[in-house]
Amino acid sequence: MQKNIAVIGAGPGGYVAAIRGAQLGANVYLIENREVGGTCLNRGCIPTKTYFRNAEIMTTLKNSEEFGISVDNYQLDGKKLQNRKNEIVSQLVSGIEKLIESYKNIEFISGKANLKDKNTVSVKLCSGEEREIKVDNIVIATGSKPTMTETKGIELEGVITSDELLSMEEIPETLIVVGGGVIGVEFASIYNGLGSHVILLASRMLKNADKEIQKRITPLLKKQGIETYVDIRAKEIIKEGDKLRVIAKYKTKDKEIEVVGDKVLIASGRGPVVEDLNLDGVGIEYSHKGIHVNEDFETNIDGIYAIGDVNDVGVQLAHVASNQGVYVMEKIMGIEPVINLDVWPNCVFCIPEVAHVGMTEEEAKEKNIDYKVSKFLFGANGKALTLGETDGFVKVMADEKNKIIGVHIIGPHANDLIHEGALAISNELEVENIAKTIHAHPTLSEAFYEATLGLEGQAIHMAPPRKR
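^ that's the sequence the OP posted. Answer follows.
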């Protein structure tokens, strides 16, 4: 019997779920009230990484003398930067639209969905008409939106979220970033590279990262020219002419600072999009953290699932949303999923890049796991030296059985390198499995190889590891 499934939201979770459902023979209604691709393609991952590439190039130009190259009078054209971003987004969105169209058992519906009951979805179409759809299952994939702090003055003109910042053609002369999470650190680094004077106010840096990464990122951001304050909270924002003054107070000492900028970016995180879904009417449990789900991402109402940023699992990553979508569709269609959803790479696109997967040292200690750790510095890696990017390290952790349980990287191309660590952890590989794999020279991946060998005291280019 063919199943009819409604997927609400066409972001990385929703459209991937719809395609996997269609592949398995389901009849899928994919409902979206904005653009295909969701936040990731239109207002998040892709736009920021487009800007990140510009920031990398600008940073290289700034340091061109190191490579024996003189470059004078280069400047950034904000309009062209915006156009390039829009073209890349348009190309990707168009590609996904065509991909969805290629599945005859996916019907894309442009409109706003509302749940009537566990088997009925009402859609207010763009034309203003209402359409009712009867289904066997519902998958909610409505994603998240920027949240604002309760700081006094956030309603002032010039106090913006990441959505507004990405739509601006001009580069602020001085940008104040409030928040030291992934969004705050990425935008601080990107706009510093694009030429803004950036002031970063953070209560703490990258809270989910290993503490060694947290400690190292602050001086490296300062080295890039970012004015960084940690253990501090924005207390009030005041408009003074065309400028904004932010008063911030340290958390652990009785001291305040004041900083002035052209724009204030509130990067305090993202919250679930649950408005107008009629969750209360249907009886679906949720909180400010998101829709409550079990280990199969099913809500308290049988047959209704929630995936990605909108659920309360707490992992707001596009690739995790996509994999949750695949998992749910396979579960609905009677297939036992083989996806390992316990291991996922976390990537921060700042300069230098940060990536981590698996356990941190702090988590290992909390769980009383006997572990050993090895670290290899990029300063001893030939490829990093040729790139002129020697800051940072690769840190690898293994348990008493020699299984790799954590990999933490700060440095050049960390977000590409992390996948060898993710592969190792998700497949429960041991140090020996990495040791017997020849890594090409000269490459950055040798840093991971050396750090892993260091766990057994076999690394050629580093000292023996410290033990816990």
